[in-house]
Amino acid sequence: MPANFARRRDLFLDAGFADADAAISALQAEVATLGLSGEAGVESVARLRRALADRVARVPADQRRLAALIPEWLAARSGDLATALWLARATYGSSLDLPGLLLAIWDALLETGRAGEAFAFGRFMLDLRFDWGRLYRDPAIAYAFLDHREPNPLVWHVLHELAPREPELRLLELGCGVGNDALGFFRHAATRSYVGIDISAEAIADFRARLQENPPALSPTLVVGDFLASISAQPGLFAGVNLVYSYSSLHYFSSSELLDIYRIARDLLSAHDKRGYFAFGIKGAGSVWDGQGLPLYRPDVWINHDGQSRWFPSRDALVQQLHGAGFEILLHTLHDHWGYSQLGKRDVFHYVLCTPRR
């Protein structure tokens, strides 16, 4: 599940709204009444503004004026949405028309001509049933999720570090996709078992087809589903895992969800006497998408132009989070991965190998 759901709720909580779920429900009712899906990218700007006009006109005039300032606040004044909503709540109290203010902000973004930012806002804030599968289908959002590639460099880092000390690697991959990194692990004799999880049924089907064409020495298990739900629902499937691995997937989760993933990984890896390992690559500060779109929480969470929210942590922020989650870091480097997210563009990843603290 994309981090939008959790981060949207966190946004209202951080802005001081006591009942975030009520705020989201009220917004959902408004969007439904207007006949808008919240999937702003499929609508024309002119049609959206016509649909919004009557509702925005009913927002109190002083709140409309505040909404009209938000595009400049976000683009030129180092502001973020969390602070803007905190200011609105503190200023207007019980008289705040929160759904109306959010729709007026959307209208203000559309009026400025910042279509990319406006559509990002609509997808994040108003598309309350975010269609994850659209990211695989939409040709305008080309992340090449389903492309066959060589294994990412982190695979070789991990094998270089672990193969000399671990004769048997029993691997769980979170966000395995079409198996690009798995096929790298399969080439090494130390890899004795493998379970891969991905939310995309299409990706898993492609992965299975690749295995039929070139069967590995082991018998992989592939699961379609969300990380957290799958691991919680089928704990026996992951017994004996001594390496949890993920590449470019963890940034799709909010901080609270990441803590759940860390806890589950730590519990899996601590279930036996031998040491277990957690290895992952996550986009960091300076990534190709860092600073693109709308700032959600300063300084490092953004709503990118696809409408998804992502965390771009600094080195210190990630180290602090892992230490707090009970992990000892064995390897942590910043890797420039050119062309991973956009052709010819530099992307920045944290490469991390850690182990549960004993």
Label this structure with key terms.
358 residues, seven-stranded mixed sheet, Rossmann fold, alpha/beta, 10 strands, 14 helices, three-stranded antiparallel sheet, 2 domains
Q: Helices and strands in order, then pairings?
A:
Blueprint: H1 4-14, H2 20-34, H3 45-57, H4 61-76, H5 81-92, H6 98-111, H7 115-126, H8 134-137, H9 153-162, E1 169-174, H10 180-186, E2 191-198, H11 201-213, E3 221-224, H12 227-233, E4 243-247, H13 255-269, E5 277-283, E6 294-297, E7 301-303, E8 309-311, H14 315-324, E9 327-338, E10 346-356
Parallel strand pairs: 1-2, 1-4, 2-3, 4-5
Antiparallel strand pairs: 5-10, 6-7, 7-8, 9-10
Helix pairs in contact: 1-2, 2-6, 3-6, 4-5, 4-6, 6-7, 12-13
- Order of SSEs, N→C? HHHHHHHHHEHEHEHEHEEEEHEE
Tell me, briefly, the overall form: elongated
Content of β-strand: 15-25%
Number of helices: 14
| Class from secondary-structure proportions | alpha/beta
The whole-angstrom Rg is: 22 Å
- Could you state the CATH homologous superfamily of the largest domain? Vaccinia Virus protein VP39
Low-confidence stretches: none
- Mean pLDDT across the residues is 88
Looking at CATH, which topology of the largest domain would you report? Rossmann fold
So, CATH architecture of the largest domain?
Answer: 3-Layer(aba) Sandwich
Query: In which range does the helix fraction lie?
Result: 40-55%
Work out the number of β strands.
10
How far apart are the first and last residues' alpha carbons, in Å?
Answer: 31 Å
Strand order of the largest sheet: 3-2-1-4-5-10-9
Q: What is the makeup of the main sheet?
A: 7 strands, mixed
* CATH classification, class level of the largest domain: Alpha Beta
Determine the oligomeric state from the structure: single chain
Number of domains: 2
